Amino acid sequence: MLDSIFSAEFINSILRATTPILFATMASAVAAKAGICNMALEGMMLLSALFGVVFSALFGGIFGTATGFSQFASFGCGFLLTVLAGGLIGLVFAFCILHMKADEILAAIALNLIASGGTIMLLMAAAGEKGASSALASVAAPKVTIPLIEAIPGLGKILSGQNLLTWLSLLSVAGVHIFLYKTPMGLKIRAVGENKNAAESVGISARKIQYVALVISGMLASMGGFYLSGGYMNMFTRDMAAGRGYIALAASSMGADTPIGGFLVSILFGIAQAVANLMQLTTIPMQLVQMVPYLTTLVGLGIYSYARMKRRRKLVQVK
Fold it and tell me: Do residues 34 and 230 make contact, with C-beta atoms less than 8 angstroms apart?
């Protein structure tokens, strides 16, 4: 097991395991900067995982999958529609909490429960199955082969052959950072999150900005959901989000709701998931193996909370 941990394949698996968490972490960071805790990430990812399979299978039937171009076209159209669907889910969630004044935590729990049961109902309607979408010929996201790097021992196995969405998740960190800290809309989002009344006093519509933030959050979460069924696996399975939305909330919080901080913590949780996958090859009971990512989340949050408490005590003593 130690030999496997220090191998290029293990680092490759870390990037694969981190990808959906990283997308959801960026989604959480955008919503948090607008002053909203998006606990509906789990449901958004789960719905998007199913939409990704359905849409890519639909366009696969239209374009065909005989050539590389047709496969890429099917993937691209399916991915685009899934992202738009994620934005629509974010819009509905925003309408519930901003217009209908529903409690954001209760609304998120409701969306997550609807997603858990609704995906099974939609899967039955689309493929006549309850557990998995094996009857749907979905198109997976393509892998990116880097010619020169591919030939480098070790590094080639880590970087070359990664899924296109893995690279997109890494680019999303830079994109979200630039959006939040280098654009006028990002400045407005941060202003609303820090002090809504002060932002409104200078003419910024807090509700409008929070609508925009939640739509963007939904779109980012949908990318993570699409990767689950179109990259990490090549089909949809029941409740396949498996708590990654909640892990992303923890990663965002521990990273101070910043893209860079969230990225670093997401890598930590990706390592925990990769270790859990590796432990499945041992004689350790499966129940303990499945607990590893969530135990890591609890321990990480405990350490983070303790560190924050100590900083607050020091500030109080200084004052």
Answer: no
| pTM across the whole model | 0.91
Report how far residue 210's alpha carbon sits from residue 216's, in angstroms, rounded to the nearest whole number: 10
DSSP states along 188-257: HHHHHHH-HHHHHHTT--HHHHHHHHHHHHHHHHHHHHHHIIIIISSS-BTTTTTTHHHHHHHHHHHTTT
Hey, what amino acid is at 114?
I
Q: What are phi and psi of 195, to 5 degrees?
A: -160, 95
Distance of CA 31 to the CA centre of its chain: 13
Q: How far is CA 169 from CA 98, 100, 179, 194, in A?
A: 29, 33, 15, 27
Question: Which stretches within 64-102 are classed as H helix?
Answer: 68-94
Tell me the per-residue pLDDT of 55-109, one tens digit each, with 9 for 90 and over.
988 887 776 666 677 788 888 888 999 999 999 999 999 999 999 999 999 999 9
